[in-house]
Design a protein that fits this description.
404 residues, alpha+beta, two-stranded antiparallel ribbon, 13 strands, 43% helix, globular
């Protein structure tokens, strides 16, 4: 039986009415959040953080004196490169006859200025060997965990940066290069999960962080910029920071002070409840402007990124509020930060609101439903041709052979 759209429509109407009724409260909270930003007192904020001893239940970034400043884009050179990678994957599937997964990395290299060109490519890689299907503890090889789901997503992110690094190495002249990734520079799939420590150590520390170090070393030889672009971000870290200054208790201790108060009725909720960062910055930043920088403060980065600190800023592209994440060596140099801002903004203008290089890299990386079906069929054919009997689950067969 298909979805009962009539019954669903009634529920959607009810949902819409509820949203309408709560809209004014949302607008009031947004207005208060903007007021807090415009009058933000960094010294008061820092003192409250110190006094709280971290006894609050929300993640906040490190804020500097210039975090809430606004910056316009500057000029950029005539000759430069934009390199972007994106990825997709086919997960391990117990319904097919082989235990394997596939990662497809799409790339886009754009050269602007003299001798301009574009190179688009995709590189699929099949992982089927035993050592490729698990993450093992280097200190105790008997401990391992299979690669699938969130761990595979983290593995794919690692491969995206690995291929991006490879492409950067292949450029041998001294004009600026912006290396751009889609999404975050934080391996979010490893946060909040009950993964063993050795998984985070292998993928984040021995994998992603070492590639960040390699990019930093390359930046000493080349005019290299590295950033990631998050479209329509749902982060609320900056808004969460406003809770600190809005808390009415002399010492911030969420569990002790507010555990019995319904969320939405706490004093700090006046500036934060159901508000996300992009809503605030869409009112705060004019088209083309970016915010100052904020440092991401999460355990995964602090413990597994080999000292590579990650920063972010918000950018009004004219079409949306984007979150751009950068490594510390970009954040520390105003000229590199300004050039990153300018080049990404220009990429968004060329891509009608989204970086054109990432758009093209995504198109190369995408795996369609048809591709997935052909992938399974190719596996079955290869198994049969090698004299082995292929199998699949009855559930999978039922999807192919529906008869009602």
């Amino acid at each position: 039986m298909s979805l009962d759209l009539t019954h669903t429509a009634l529920q959607i109407d009810s949902m819409s009415e509820n949203i309408k009724n709560s809209r004014q409260n949302h607008i009031n909270r947004l207005s208060k959040a903007l007021g807090k930003i415009r009058s933000f007192d960094i010294k008061f904020h820092e003192s409250r953080i110190i006094n709280s001893l971290g006894m609050f239940n929300w993640n906040i970034p490190d804020i500097s004196a210039g975090s809430f400043d606004k910056f316009n884009a500057g000029d950029f050179p005539e000759d430069y490169y934009i390199i972007a990678t994106d990825g997709s994957h086919i997960d391990v599937d117990r319904h097919i006859p082989v235990n394997c997964y596939l990662i497809n990395i799409g790339s886009c290299v754009l050269k602007y200025g003299n001798n301009s060109f574009a190179e688009l490519n995709s590189v699929p890689k099949l992982y089927a060997k035993h050592e490729e299907l698990t993450v093992s503890d280097r200190d105790n090889p008997s401990k391992s965990i299979s690669i699938h789901g969130a761990i595979l997503s983290a593995k794919r992110m690692l491969e995206e940066l690995n291929y991006l690094t490879k492409l950067v190495k292949e450029i041998n002249n001294d004009i600026p290069i912006l290396a751009l990734m889609d999404g975050s520079l934080i391996m979010l799939d490893l946060i909040g999960q009950t993964h063993p420590e050795f998984v985070k150590k292998e993928l984040a520390e021995n994998g992603f962080a070492r590639l960040l170090n390699e990019m930093f070393e390359l930046s000493k030889e080349k005019q290299l910029l590295l950033a990631s672009y998050i479209s329509l971000p749902r982060s609320s870290e900056v808004v969460n920071s406003l809770r600190v200054s809005n808390c009415s208790f002399s010492e911030i201790h969420c569990d002790l002070n507010c555990s019995k108060i319904v969320p939405g009725n706490r004093i700090c909720d006046e500036v934060s409840n159901e508000i996300i960062d992009r809503e605030v910055f869409s009112e705060y930043l004019s088209p083309g402007e970016r915010s100052g920088i904020f440092r991401i403060n999460v355990d995964l980065v602090n413990n597994y990124y080999l000292g590579n600190r990650i920063y972010f800023f918000y950018l009004n592209t004219g079409e949306e509020i984007a979150r751009v994440e950068i490594p510390e060596w970009i954040a520390d140099r105003e000229d590199l930060l300004e050039l990153t801002h300018s080049l990404i903004l220009n990429q968004c203008e060329l891509g009608h609101g989204y970086p054109v290089s990432l758009m093209e890299a995504h198109e190369q990386a995408v795996i369609t439903s048809s591709d997935r079906n052909h992938f399974v069929e190719m596996i079955e054919i290869a198994i049969n041709q090698n004299g082995m009997k292929s199998y699949t689950s009855e559930k999978n067969l039922s999807k192919r052979l529906r008869w009602l």
